[in-house]
């Protein structure tokens, strides 16, 4: 792993992007490592939640411009560099972004692709691709249009100006703003709370919420209903309901 560091804090895997001399510019190799790390955490039975973070100055300052500057449209089509990002959406476990400093372009898209976002006060979110004569390529137009509506999305995407953590919070793009020094610890605590929840229920809830963004309302309701019924096949649902009735703390096993 040339561009990442990783360690576990109990059931939480902390993955840190560490290409600090380039503000974590997302070159192909870094994204490959990141996707592999997320998938490995997803497959590891000892991991219940994942925290993705970057450096103090930047979560990530976008796709690596140096890697793209001389590329032709054909090069980009053949490289298809954003295909790997689809696999991030395929991660079943909760992924929490802990963002300090710049989250621009692909860095903003990466934060938005995480399930929850905890931002330090210094965080700045934005899609400045327009200033390079480009547009977002890793989901920015879709995330922002769906989450902010047309007018706010177009303003951010057309002007390319970054917004502060507090503005992102007020727009509903992120979950919480905390002091920078508390950002990763806060995300880890959140991960630990999630780790106490029944994993199969968390997974089904995630699936249903993402489906809500993809499908017509009625189809989403149908999918949600079926996933709800499916959870009755888990021992954790049985245990959770029984523990409630018996006024005790449930013990979830992940099956
Ligand atoms: N790609 C490649 N290198 C980058 C980079 C990027 N996205 N962002 C920063 N760097 C490099 C800089 O070139 C610089 O390298 P050198 O020291 O060798 O000169 C180093 O990181 C430090 O950056 P700065 O000196 O520029 O730091 P700063 O504090 O003056 O500015 C910044 C910080 C405002 C974030 C500025 O670096 C910047 O504007 N970066 C580019 C942001 C951007 O346009 N991102 C979108 C990329 S396209 C994209 O992401 C497409 C997509 O949808 C996925």
From TrEMBL:
Sorted keywords for this record are: Lyase
Does this entry carry the keyword Lyase? yes
Please give the superkingdom of this protein's source.
Bacteria
According to UniProt, the name of this protein is: Short chain enoyl-CoA hydratase
Checking Pfam families in the record gives:
ECH_1 (PF00378)
Family per similarity comment: Belongs to the enoyl-CoA hydratase/isomerase family.
GO MF = hydro-lyase activity
One GO biological process this protein is involved in is: fatty acid beta-oxidation
């Amino acid at each position: 792993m040339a561009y990442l560091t990783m360690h576990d804090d109990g059931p939480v895997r902390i993955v840190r992007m560490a290409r600090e001399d380039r503000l974590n510019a997302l070159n192909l190799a870094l994204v490959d490592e990141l996707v592999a790390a997320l998938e490995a955490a997803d497959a590891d039975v000892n991991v219940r939640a994942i925290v993705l973070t970057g450096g103090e100055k930047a979560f990530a300052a976008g796709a690596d411009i140096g890697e793209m500057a001389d590329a032709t449209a054909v090069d980009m089509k053949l490289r298809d560099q954003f295909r790997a990002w689809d696999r991030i959406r395929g991660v079943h476990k909760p992924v929490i972004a802990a963002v300090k400093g710049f989250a621009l372009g692909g860095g903003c898209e990466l934060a938005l692709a995480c399930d929850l976002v905890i931002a330090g006060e210094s965080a700045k979110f934005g899609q400045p691709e327009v200033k390079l004569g480009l547009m977002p390529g890793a989901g920015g137009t879709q995330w922002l249009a769906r989450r902010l509506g047309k007018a706010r999305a177009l303003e951010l995407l057309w002007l390319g100006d970054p917004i502060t953590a507090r503005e992102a919070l007020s727009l509903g793009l992120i979950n919480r703003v905390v002091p920078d020094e508390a950002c990763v610890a806060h995300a880890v605590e959140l991960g630990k709370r999630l780790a106490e929840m029944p994993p199969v229920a968390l997974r089904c809830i995630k699936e249903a919420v993402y489906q809500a963004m993809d499908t017509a309302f009625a189809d989403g309701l149908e999918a949600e209903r079926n996933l709800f019924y499916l959870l009755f096949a888990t021992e954790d649902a049985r245990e959770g309901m029984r523990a409630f009735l018996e006024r005790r703390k449930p013990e979830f096993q992940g099956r």
